[in-house]
Design a protein that fits this description.
By secondary structure, this protein is α/β, with parallel strands linked by helices. It is built from eleven helices and 25 strands. The chain has helices at residues 18-27, 49-53, 66-69, 131-150, 154-160, 170-186, 216-228, 273-282, 327-346, 380-394, 398-414, and strands at residues 10-14, 33-38, 42-44, 63-65, 76-80, 83-87, 92-95, 98-101, 104-107, 111-113, 162-166, 200-205, 231-235, 238-243, 246-250, 255-259, 262-265, 269-271, 292-293, 299-300, 303-308, 313-314, 360-365, 368-373, 376-379. The radius of gyration is 22 Å and the shape is globular.
């Protein structure tokens, strides 16, 4: 595959997440030609993956085909392909099945799970970054309840009824809260042998509090909300080993073991493999998590035609604090990357990228969330409503927004979750 040149400035975007998508939309119907590449054919709203994993939503509720999103932007061509390499000197991106030349390149390839040198833990404690991962986790969660219903051995029953989440950042906290809702409300009348309220949900965090990036007052509030849902928070916990159904951790001088049928990893991220390819081809420096250290204009040093945005990029704010790997950062960087390219074509300068922090939030359960808007910090029901409407607003397509809003309303009124299907193949 080799796309022909037609005289227009050709922008290649790698990655269909928030950064890449917002860059593409900002370049839509502008005097440039855009090739939009992703290994999948859809944009995924990752902040709601935990809802798929716990049966609150179906995959189609939080995913939209990329071609549908940009169908009215006639200067954008979408390719489902794997990027394997690049040649900055020749301005070529190599695909698994061909190559594409570029004038400007935007790389927004995202991150993957970081097991800190223990990659063998991945199948035992999977993370949550893809639809496939969410469906696998959903299978594990609901299968554990099904096995518990028929288990007569007390020790094995306790193991099936124990869930361990490693990492108490926003993903870990939201997952723990959703599991608490599931056990204490949704499934409470569905089984006859087990009482789902007897479930043990353990949230392990290496720091001294949950939601470490948040102000301490919101961390404390989140911890109290988790406690009401039956979640046991263990701080200062460093996981040292994960074997089949056994999680080992230390809390200083003492070592502890937990028998649990289900373990979930939410403890860290590292850059995708494309960052290392970029480092080899350009000499750009990477941070400890493999993210690309970009300039104030989000470009690779010495390569003004290559921009790196989103979770893959490492950049500090004026105070020297690294920008968080969140959707708002990626969105703003995507828009900025498009503006920078368009300004260059007009011969206009562009100021350095400056992230405008609109705040952060995390949901814990029904009526429970925390919102940090700088000077304004609050929780409870108002925070929960804020979380709902913010997430609805960020969903890409109108159909998705309407479906999710209706489904959440139904779940709220009935305390039921309709997507509780176990879809693994039965031999």
């Amino acid at each position: 595959m080799h796309l022909p040149e037609d005289g227009e400035h050709h922008v290649v975007i790698v990655g269909g997440g928030f950064g890449g998508l917002y860059a593409a939309k900002a370049l839509g119907n502008k005097p440039v030609r855009v090739t939009f590449i992703d290994r999948r054919n859809y944009h995924l709203f990752q902040p709601l993956l935990y809802q798929v994993a716990t049966g609150g939503l179906s995959p189609a509720d939080i995913a939209t085909p990329l071609r549908a999103i940009v169908s009215r932007l006639k200067n954008i061509r979408v390719l489902q392909a794997d990027v394997t390499d690049l040649d900055p000197s020749q301005q070529i991106v190599y695909l698994k099945d061909g190559q594409v030349s570029y004038d400007s390149l935007i790389i927004a390839a995202g991150v993957t799970h970081h097991y800190f040198g223990h990659d063998t833990w991945a199948p035992l404690a999977p993370g949550l970054k893809t639809i496939e991962g969410a469906l696998d986790l959903r299978q594990r969660i609901f299968s554990a309840f099904e096995r518990a219903e028929t288990e007569e051995d007390t020790e094995r029953l306790n193991g099936e009824m124990t869930f361990v989440i490693i990492g108490a950042g926003p993903t870990g906290v939201e997952l723990a809260g959703a599991l608490g809702e599931l056990a204490h409300h949704t499934l409470i009348n569905d089984f006859r042998h087990i009482n789902t309220r007897d479930v043990k949900i353990l949230l392990l965090e290496g720091a001294d509090r949950v939601l470490p990036p948040y102000p301490p007052v919101l961390s404390e509030r989140a911890a109290k909300s988790l406690d009401k849902l039956g979640v046991t928070v263990i701080t200062g916990a460093k996981v040292t080993d994960i074997e089949d159904h056994i999680i080992t951790y230390t809390d200083g001088e003492h070592t502890h073991q937990i028998q649990a049928a289900t373990a979930i990893w939410a403890a860290g991220m590292k850059a995708s493999a494309l960052a290392h390819v970029l480092a080899e081809r350009t000499g750009v420096a990477l941070d400890v998590f493999g993210r690309v250290k970009v300039t104030e204009h989000l470009t690779v040093p010495g390569q003004t035609d290559i921009l790196v945005i989103g979770d893959l990029a490492y950049r500090e704010d004026p105070a020297g604090i690294p920008l968080p790997g969140t959707c708002p950062v990626a969105m703003q960087q995507g828009g900025y990357a498009a503006k920078l390219i368009l300004n260059r074509l007009k011969g206009k300068p562009t100021k350095a990228f400056l992230y405008f922090d609109k705040g952060s939030m995390a949901v814990i359960g029904r009526h429970a969330a925390v919102v940090n808007l700088g000077r304004l910090k609050f929780g409870g029901f108002p925070a929960w409503l804020t979380w709902i409407f913010i997430h609805i607003a960020y969903l890409i397509e109108f159909d998705n927004k309407l479906v999710v809003l209706v489904r959440w309303a139904w779940n709220y009124l009935t305390k039921k979750k309709g997507a509780r299907l176990i879809t693994n193949r039965i031999e």
